[in-house]
Amino acid sequence: MLDPKIVLMFFTTSILLALSPGPDNLFVMTQAAQQGRKAGLLVTLGLCTGLLFHTAAVTFGLAALFKASALAFTVLKFTGAGYLLYLAWQAFRAVTVTGAAAAVDQLNSGALYRRGIIMNITNPKVSIFFLAFLPQFVEPAKGQLSAQFLLLGAVFIIATLIIFGAISLLAGAFGESFRRSAFARKLLNRAAGGIFAALAIKLALAQR
Prior knowledge:
Elements: H1 4-19, H2 23-35, H3 37-60, H4 62-68, H5 70-92, H6 109-121, H7 124-133, H8 145-179, H9 182-204
């Protein structure tokens, strides 16, 4: 089993990584500001579910495929970029409403949860990051490597839940006043669409 000091160091590093600006926390912030804190929390749960995929990918060697195969990497990243462009299109064409109709119910909970999963698993750079990051904290002398990878993945998910959950609450509270105004909500939708489009371009241009 891993040394508790190593686990604590990994948890601290994971917190700092979750706090650093990136596509996932920006995605959560945008969703929470646009649709409320519940939307941000549901998307966060989806993203963390996606991290289970990446943890398994490292544990069972799939991440190495994305690193070694240009075709696999390209197919996955363009799938993700296409999905983000679809979200941008949805945001730009969203009907501007206020009050209760502007709440999270615009998208059901399952749709928001799936949105987080798709956003995460269609980014091959996350798997490659895990492939480079997790092995730095494993200790072959401490037991089965697969068990250590799974433990580290779980710790990373907990850190992500804490930070992204906080982002959801703060962004949701900040966006609440905007959602009461039709004009401000229109601006918020346009801003969300622009952010999704920018993330799509960034992902499409990503290199292994």
